[in-house]
Design goal:
binds magnesium ion, 40% helix, alpha/beta, seven-stranded mixed β-sheet, six-stranded mixed β-sheet, Aldehyde Dehydrogenase, Chain A, domain 1, binds 1,4-dihydronicotinamide adenine dinucleotide
Length: 494
Amino acid sequence: MTDLPSTVHAILDRAGPLLVDGEWVDAIDGGTLPVFDPSTAEELTTVAAAGPKDVDAAVVAARRAFDEGPWRRLSPGERTRLLWRLADLVEEHAEEFAVLESLDVGKPIVAARAGDVRGAVAVLRYTAGWADKLEGETLPLAAPPDGEYHAFTVREPVGVCAQIIPWNYPLVMAVWKIAPALAAGCTVVLKPAEETPLSALRLGELIKEAGFPPGVVNIIPGFGETAGAALAAHTGVDKIAFTGSTEVGRQIAHAAADNLSRVSLELGGKSPNVVFADADLERAIPGSARAIFTNAGQSCGSGSRVYIEEPVFDEVVSGIVAEAEALRLGPGLDERSQLGPIVSARQLERVSGYVDDAVADGATIVTGGARPELPGWFYRPTIVTDVRAEMQIVREEVFGPVLVAVPFSDYDDLVRRANDTRFGLAAGTWTRDLRKAFRVVRDMRAGRLYVNCWSVIDPALPVGGFKESGWGREMGRAVRELYTEVKAACVRID
Ligand code: NAI
Ligand code: MG
């Protein structure tokens, strides 16, 4: 820890309080949570953990900032300017954010820079541009009772947004949630995951520095079962946006139902990646490896089931094995690391549990399947074959660097098996045949489709899932539907 940049030491020393109503405050009941470096399993610092009273204070602040504050009445152009200013500030502090993200999640710093921080800045800038484009429509009445009318719609901010995010891309998730809500004129209570509060707290400092009015953004790290549950159930909340497990997503939906609050959910996945025999294997093999091993497999859109056409099955599997075995495992902050640890001891246990159960069920481990000789919560990149459709490792989201490889020969049978899942987040294929490519796009029941690439995440592309992968879409034009209400106005003019 001594070789950390002094700016990061300063952040770790400072990190602690909650951001409520524009002030940094300790948790009312004094709760704290420890923050670990997954690369060493050592504690980095502790931060305040919000309890129900802090959740209430944050919601009250957000409510006041929405109902009475200047925020909603700022011109859209002003909101754009503030979001753009925040983007500039994050960019100015890019290296600090990369280090924080790498320390907190364990992810390779190279990926934190090129993916997380760059992506967060891009989302802030893209979303800033929506603030002044949330227009309504002029509508000719279809069957007016009498007289003449001028009718139109306007879009208004939905109100106070409770936003609960996971630990896999903490900064990106915070920005995906906060930026569109702010662009629309909403106010926000953000609860980062208990595993990874650091970058959101630093973002809170920059939100203050950018000049957002007090109460517009409140940031309250805390545990899911206490702070998260209290936030989701709070009657002062108009809209809940959640990213995380399908299990908790279901609980959030129940909480939202009780209050009839709006809700959007971005949940788990078990995404099929189809490699046809005609594919350019020089791209398909490393691409399929990246589809699962990026972020140590801790991505909702990981390509965690690869279906390989029989004639090239052995060649593709051994190619992905070679890619996996060449990955340099190491601590996040090591510039040479290509695969970091799993975020927590609990998550590591979950991942290794799935693999051990698969072996007990008769599956074969082609590579990996164990922890390396490293401190911290590492798990070797793992490829599993000889699986049956009913096995947990084929059905459940493992959320670790674990790929199941399955051969196929008949296309219709492939489609049936690829779609035989309760999830529907992403799917993709590698082929040189246009017809096959478009058929896969047509036939997969998933919210994101990739052809000859994987996991291209862009602010302009909506993200979300079919089936139990969630409700609603984030990013792109979907921003409008997520954070606005439509008001229809009717004016008699004769
Ligand atoms: P989780 O769903 O428990 O945690 C995500 C967020 O929800 C965190 O901020 C947590 O504090 C909060 N939360 C937990 N319980 C809550 C509750 N009762 N009410 C309100 N908020 C609550 O996910 P966890 O336990 O970290 O990971 C479990 C599995 O979830 C993973 O193995 C993976 O399969 C999946 N997952 C999916 C993610 C995605 O991007 N779709 C992200 C993280 C996890
Ligand atoms: Mg949980």
